[in-house]
Design a protein that fits this description.
This protein is an all-beta fold. It has two domains: 83 residues, no CATH class; 71 residues, no CATH class. A hairpin with a 2-residue loop joins strand 12 and strand 13. It is globular, with a radius of gyration of 22 Å. The termini are far apart.
Length: 173
């Protein structure tokens, strides 16, 4: 099956993933982007895993890889080209019913926590309704807004308890 490889939300190449007995055979070709070393990542369900570094060849960047189906029982939903920055990896997927085409993701402090970084530009910002709980951050020379997810859902602050104006009763003896 041929799939698109994405770079910052735009198509950057193709990857062919085929079952080859007890292995997956991956053949990717993509356009060079920016400077530095790029990796091909597989992303799905709030995780992103590196699959290899494409090397120059055939007029672009290529990756030929064979993976054990035991070590990789299923292929990811999305293929991305990019760089890791401060523990964040390129990611593409859905959050709270919204498709996010260009993001970075990082494991949080607990098993159910994930940090999602969405680009701060251009407008409209993905998940803008959560802007009040997003933290600005610069990753790989781009501005992002970072949102904490718990079990895949945005973590919202607990509502402030309404203060009761209860007067203390007179304590006369």
């Amino acid at each position: 099956m041929d799939e698109t490889i994405w770079y910052q939300g735009k198509p950057a190449g193709q990857i062919r993933a085929e079952q080859d007995g007890l292995y997956w055979k991956l053949d990717a070709q993509c356009e060079p982007r920016g400077s530095g070393i790029l990796r091909i990542y597989g992303a799905d369900r709030f995780r992103s895993e590196p699959f290899g570094v494409p090397v120059p060849g055939d007029g672009g960047l290529v990756l030929h890889r064979r993976l054990s189906r035991h070590a990789c029982p299923h292929l990811p939903e999305h293929w991305l080209l990019g760089r890791e920055a401060e523990g964040f990896r390129p990611w593409r997927g859905s959050v709270d019913g919204q498709e996010i085409a260009d993001a970075m993701i990082c494991p949080g402090d607990t098993a159910d926590c994930t940090l999602l970084a969405v680009p701060a530009e251009p407008e409209p910002v993905p998940l803008a309704e959560y802007a009040s709980v997003m933290e600005p951050r610069r990753l790989a020379d781009r501005n992002y807004l970072v949102l904490e997810l718990r079990n895949g859902l945005p973590l919202l602050p607990a509502p402030e308890a309404e203060q009761e104006d209860a007067e203390s009763p007179d304590q006369s003896s």
